[in-house]
Amino acid sequence: MSKLTVRARLLASSMICGAAMTAAPALAQTAGEEISEVVVTGTRIPSPNLESVSPVTAVSAAEIKATGVTRVEDMINSLPQAFAAQGSSVSNGSTGTATISLRGLGPTRTQVLIDGRRLMPGTPNTTGANLAADINFIPSALIERVDVLTGGASAVYGADAVGGVVNFIMSRRFEGVRLDAQYGIYQHDNGSSIADVVSASAAKAASPEFFRLPKDNVRDGESSQVTLVIGVNSPDGKGNVTAYAGYRHVEPILQGNRDFSACTLNSGDTFAAAGCGGSGTAFPARFGNYVVDITGPGNTFRTRDASRDVFNFGPENYYQRPDDRYVLGAFAEYELTDWATAYADVMFMDDQSTFQIAAGGVFAGTFNVNCANPFLSAQQRGLLGVFQGAAGETCANTTNPNAMFRGTIARRNVEGGGRQGAMQHQQYRYVVGVRGDLGDNWNYDFAMQYGRVSFNQVQTGFFRTQAINNALNVVNVNGVPTCKSVIDQTDLACVPYNIMQLGGVTPEALAYLETPSTTMGNLFERVVNFSIGGDLTEYGVKTPWATDGVGVSFGAEYRRETMDFSSDFISSSGQLNGSGGAAPPVNGSFDVYEMFAETRIPLVQDVAFAKNLTMELAFRYSDYSTIGTTETYKIAGDWEPIDGLRIRGGYNRAVRAPHVLELFSPQNVVLDGTQDPCAGLSANDPLVARCAQAFGLTTAQVLAIEANSANQYNGLNGGNPDLDPETADTYTVGFVYQPSFLPGFNLSVDYFDIKVKDFISGIGADTIITRCVDTLDPFYCNLVQRDADNSLYLSNQGFVRNTTLNTGSLATTGFDINVGYRTDLENFGLGNSGGLSFNFVGTYLDTLKVQPLPGEDAFDCAGYFGNICSVSGGLSAPNPEWRHKARVTWTTPLEYGDWFKDFSLSLQWRHFSKVTLDAYSKDPGLNNPGLQYASDKTLKARDYFDLTASWTMRDNINFRAGVNNLFDKDPPLTGSSNCPTGPCNGNTWAQMYDAFGRYLFVGATMDF
Question: Over the stretch 2-13, which tens digit does the pLDDT of each residue have?
Answer without folding.
Answer: 333 333 322 222
